[in-house]
Amino acid sequence: MAALVVSALSATSVARITPFPKTFHTQMVQTNGTSLYVRIGGKGPAVVLLHGFGDTGDMWGPLAADLVKDHTVIVPDLRGMGLSAHPDTGYTKKNQATDIAGVMDALKVQKADLVTHDIGNMVGYALAAQYPARISRWVVIDAPLPGIGDWDTIIRSPLLWHFNFRGPDEERLVQGRERIYLDRFYDELSADPKKIDEATREHYAKLYARPRAMHDAFEQFGAFGQDATDNKAFLATGGKLKMPILALGAQKSFGPGMAEDLRFVASDVTGGIVPDSGHWIMEENPQATVSLVTEFLRK
Fold this sequence. Notes:
Blueprint: H1 2-13, E1 25-31, E2 34-41, E3 46-50, H2 61-67, E4 72-76, H3 93-106, E5 112-117, H4 119-130, E6 135-141, H5 151-154, H6 168-174, H7 178-188, H8 198-208, H9 213-222, H10 224-238, E7 245-250, H11 257-262, E8 269-274, H12 281-284, H13 286-297
Parallel strand pairs: 3-4, 3-5, 5-6, 6-7, 7-8
Antiparallel strand pairs: 1-2, 2-4
């Protein structure tokens, strides 16, 4: 009996893909020469949630379920990822920021809060830098910005070899083995790989096995050189961002370094830590992540 109780408690602590509330609807939004798959729900002040590599907008289910109580929640899949279209070009974060501004235009949203993770952080910075009047507040979670702060040291980390893993032969190696490739990230960049359950891994492996999905994911990394140049130009010409920012680092990943990085580009930065988590904050500790984000956005 004791063993069964322990087993049940362990099962409830493992994150699974959380469906979006039934009040959400989805649509393909035409923007900037492509089409993005977007989940939309709720009423009130708008908030845009941007995912990164290894996830899609599906990662935000638990947060969307909370924010929809008093927000209009907008959750796109980035260009070339998830269920969005797969254009041949346009994977600089500067250009993808224009994608997101176009989504806001299509939904008649002039201004929004922003919550981002991983590559979503990079699109988020380009969005906030190019359209500062349209972003009220920004929660940025556990990934650096190309060209900013200690970027040149960060990219030398052996853990980040995947930044330069791309090309036709690399795609042939990964084709049909997408689950193996993604498991590497879930296992090595998490605090506890067991918190990323089988259903979650299979869910994303199927999405990344779709035609061109892994190619376009590699394109996201391939644009980092131009992203670094663009980010330095944003900072040089526009100065530091003025909107309030919450910079959350995972305890077993970027930690306080997330806030340190953002202070290079923003003047109003509050730091925070997602406890008991590696990089995959919504999979490893969704409750703490939701609590930290919503407390900031509802101040």
